[in-house]
Amino acid sequence: xxxxxxxxxxxxxxxxxxxxxxxxxxxxxxxxxxxxxxxxxxxxxxxxxxxxxxxxxxxxxxxxxxxxxxxxxxxxxxxxxxxxxxxxxxxxxxxxxxxxxxxxxxxxxxxxxxxxxxxxxxxxxxxxxxxxxxxxxxxxxxxxxxxxxxxxxxxxxxxxxxxxxxxxxxxxxxxxxxxxxxxxxxxxxxxxxxxxxxxxxxxxxxxxxxxxxxxxxxxxxxxxxxxx
Amino acid sequence: xxxxxxxxxxxxxxxxxxxxxxxxxxxxxxxxxxxxxxxxxxxxxxxxxxxxxxxxxxxxxxxxxxxxxxxxxxxxxxxxxxxxxxxxxxxxxxxxxxxxxxxxxxxxxxxxxxxxxxxxxxxxxxxxxxxxxxxxxxxxxxxxxxxxxxxxxxxxxxxxxxxxxxxxxxxxxxxxxxxxxxxxxxxxxxxxxxxxxxxxxxxxxxxxxxxxxxxxxxxxxxxxxxxx
Amino acid sequence: xxxxxxxxxxxxxxxxxxxxxxxxxxxxxxxxxxxxxxxxxxxxxxxxxxxxxxxxxxxxxxxxxxxxxxxxxxxxxxxxxxxxxxxxxxxxxxxxxxxxxxxxxxxxxxxxxxxxxxxxxxxxxxxxxxxxxxxxxxxxxxxxxxxxxxxxxxxxxxxxxxxxxxxxxxxxxxxxxxxxxxxxxxxxxxxxxxxxxxxxxxxxxxxxxxxxxxxxxxxxxxxxxxxx
Amino acid sequence: xxxxxxxxxxxxxxxxxxxxxxxxxxxxxxxxxxxxxxxxxxxxxxxxxxxxxxxxxxxxxxxxxxxxxxxxxxxxxxxxxxxxxxxxxxxxxxxxxxxxxxxxxxxxxxxxxxxxxxxxxxxxxxxxxxxxxxxxxxxxxxxxxxxxxxxxxxxxxxxxxxxxxxxxxxxxxxxxxxxxxxxxxxxxxxxxxxxxxxxxxxxxxxxxxxxxxxxxxxxxxxxxxxxx
Amino acid sequence: xxxxxxxxxxxxxxxxxxxxxxxxxxxxxxxxxxxxxxxxxxxxxxxxxxxxxxxxxxxxxxxxxxxxxxxxxxxxxxxxxxxxxxxxxxxxxxxxxxxxxxxxxxxxxxxxxxxxxxxxxxxxxxxxxxxxxxxxxxxxxxxxxxxxxxxxxxxxxxxxxxxxxxxxxxxxxxxxxxxxxxxxxxxxxxxxxxxxxxxxxxxxxxxxxxxxxxxxxxxxxxxxxxxx
Amino acid sequence: xxxxxxxxxxxxxxxxxxxxxxxxxxxxxxxxxxxxxxxxxxxxxxxxxxxxxxxxxxxxxxxxxxxxxxxxxxxxxxxxxxxxxxxxxxxxxxxxxxxxxxxxxxxxxxxxxxxxxxxxxxxxxxxxxxxxxxxxxxxxxxxxxxxxxxxxxxxxxxxxxxxxxxxxxxxxxxxxxxxxxxxxxxxxxxxxxxxxxxxxxxxxxxxxxxxxxxxxxxxxxxxxxxxx
Lengths: 228, 228, 228, 228, 228, 228
What we know:
Six copies of one chain form a homohexamer. The first copy, chain A, has helices at residues 67-70, 75-89, 94-97, 115-136, 142-145, 168-173, 202-227; strands at 4-8, 16-22, 25-34, 48-55, 101-110, 150-158, 161-164, 176-183, 188-195. Chain A is an alpha+beta fold. Chain A is globular, with a radius of gyration of 17 Å. β9 of chain E pairs antiparallel with β9 of chain F.
């Protein structure tokens, strides 16, 4: 696993923020508290946690077209931000949050593989700090709202060997690529596995899952050190 | 598993077509052969297989807004059509296809859960028939282009019990929901598992995977009967 | 005139539905009841009937681009769905309907000329069945809401001879092409005539109109048999 | 019929231009010559004539939203500009024009009913003057390219009486409303008739057509005076 | 400075209107009164003045693409309409206007340089006449709402010489190009200066500013003659 | 003037990059070299320098809507990125650059007033480093391509006193607000002055310009220290 770090409080404005680094992958996460909720939650007393994801045009080896200029978010972007939102919601008690919305923006400053797993893992820290900010103002009890930690890691099979936390070069070479989102207590929140070339076997998948469990456990330990 | 049927040749125009039914979920799949390929494949001698997905506005219990009218395809739509495309490409030798493109359109006529798995499973039949059409015109050898069967099934845990091929009511009630795409030889192409409520355990996931293997095997048998 | 058939009740979800076939032209029509009305009708006690039209990408000889993917509905689509809506409203008493909206979706599954006339003719059946559904629930009196039948047919002049209900090959070859929408009592609701090549004369137009009257009468008879 | 006037040469830049007035309806028409043709005509030696239509936001009684700001042209706009294009092409020999494109822009400065018929009638004058400009430069022979005159008029039935060239107030009150596009030699190019309230009869329609023939004849006479 | 004229009352519908000409640059300005205000002003008692700008496709030497057809307003359009709005608001007491909105539409009929300065200068006249219309209906006191005149002029340096009110040819040749918006009392509202080629000096800029002051003074005199 | 710093080489991928800080305003600038040029420059031997600008959603006090999600770049964004591009091009010899394009992306990580001036000033450093990168590969001679330094500063009048480099609080309170772009040799590239409240006088404007000259001189000194 690559060196992982969390730099908290890097935004003057956001209620919670974190610059997360998984090696050369750097994602800026901010959590913004707003009083509005989506229409279907109005007057239910329940809140919402959602996420948006973007890549700066030159976060990648070749410059990508700016999504704001092309007039829409691509399928990959929408898929990733839906995943981040679901993952973060899996550890939040929306009833205890109350009728408020927290939007976690994950913007990739520099990409080197694993941007979605870094975004979930760092987004959790930004979310945590936003909830701390709210607790300091007697708006919520963080213990009741935040049920567990959540973190994510990618695994893949390169040259027949399972590898944890793929960088861009490994990711491009991997025959199989999977992302695992898990909680601090070891529960599985989301699994996405894709055969890039040949299909993979159940044994290979089990090896990845077992590797991922160790990886997420370490990420959760690092999160705990970061937020305590 | 619900009753599954494939009605082939239902389009006068398409090179391959299939109306697939998984219970009350009905998806119309057409495979269209075109001479163009995406830009990055031009002059490489390789072809492409891609998919598009849509739901008729009243395929669902409540009428949904028509995506053509709202001016964009939603994130769910993009996510599903990317999945269908990857799944079908996993069993195609793009080099053997030659510099041609096959687009598989999957339009949901009536939805009752499992539209993406029905689309992959029926889309395979449409793709197969398109390749047969091409073979009949000496354009390709279907044996070389189509390496295996591919089919997909959803599984979930409802009230603590693993269930195969969820309909809409079961899907809404499921604590955990996973989609599995596998080949005829049992290789795994894609796994997507999501905890709707509480996170799930490795054991629960294994139970789903094992159930899915049986389900896909049966779907592949039905595909073989349909296309032979 | 080509063989015309109406298959009712083909949607599990819609309040009214009909698969209409004019020869090889197949259009799936659903009528959806909703409690909302357009803004300008709010609090007037009057309802609304509207229509949307679409073609599946491979309903045609060559695959067309999916309108949802291209980000907008084309001019032809908008023109046709406005025509369908006006035609259906011509036989509905919107006051007697009450402040409710019925949307008739007409999706072309397979096209072989005359999709707009098939959509109007089959859309009427779906609308009728939606109103029956409402009457069965004591929401309206169908006699008061539905004032008459409405159906449509195309006519053209091919090689100097007036032809009824043009298929795609005839439509492409026709010098003049007109669509007629008429009621069961023989009133004219809409006429659209276009000279494809040379302008046409008043006599030619009269011949088409007279042919259309017979054609619509037969369609109305078939509608009556279908819904009784 | 309202007072009709054509003011030619009102644009410094356009190859042909005309400000047409039908009473208080004022439409600015410019014809622009370009060397490009649509893709499907490239290397065929044939040219193209097309039209675009727009309304200034305050050309109407209430200010309308600017279509450029709302991000798309509405269905009515697209329908009208397609009609103008077809009408003008009906009198042009595209082969004799050669591989060039003429775009006729019709922008409504002030609207008082009948903007589409004014646009066709004035657009013809702009087109004629563009062709004269080309003939003066030995690019074409106008006699070979322009086969006839074309003009358009609306008719309607108000309080049971057929009325020619409806203004906005008459149009709003009319039970039936039809637009007729005809050539100088009396050929019919396009007929669009719509029952606003109750359906209309064949006799009523004949009365409108006969009125329209006289109206178009007068418009063609005025065009001839204007361009000679 | 080119010949400048204001033709008032050229729109039958608008509360105020003016066709302004700066030489061959012709801009049609209408001022429309509406009862709605932007969301952030609701229930504040304050009104709003805003502007929209557009060019007819063939207002220029080469035909430009219609912004409504391309689906968005370009950066230049947005920049200009924001400038017009700010300029007009600089002389309006929004509190005295009351919770109403005036939209000034500036549509370029023919362009020959200086369209934005003509739009501001003519837009003022349309705005003035809209306010007169309101005063005639006892809605406001024009003296309280309209604090001063506002007009705009461009200046540039061509071949080393400062030139006032550049036409298109001069504008294309100018090394430096600046637009000045000033009030009747000589206050500066907006300055935009751009070096097209080499940077310019403070002295050059002073020369332009001094020229502009004279130009605006003359425009204000012409406005006063026009509206009195 | 606030503390200004340039952190170079902060992107692993970009040919040139710089994180510029003007107090609490932080802008990440990357310069990307591409082999394509805009259509109108193809086969001219000339290159192009362009810029894009964006703000992260929570770079501001309240979260803004993500432009990629809203489907278009706003007028302010387009206006600013056009200004950055013009400013950088003013010191580049496009002929000496050769037929290549450099895109400078300026993404605001945290905003506290003056984002456009920081973007120009930092964008210059990223551009410089991109050109150094090219010189190191014998692609160009930086001396020939880069003619001068360029930097920008805002000034305003707060409570009657001219103030340099406004932060957000000062900017909101300023009666007058102007941005100045100047070269290292003191030439003026761009001036944009706006009266927020009452119009300003020539004397006030002169005071701002004189202050800006000193400010830009200091920024250019800091740029020189940074890149040497």
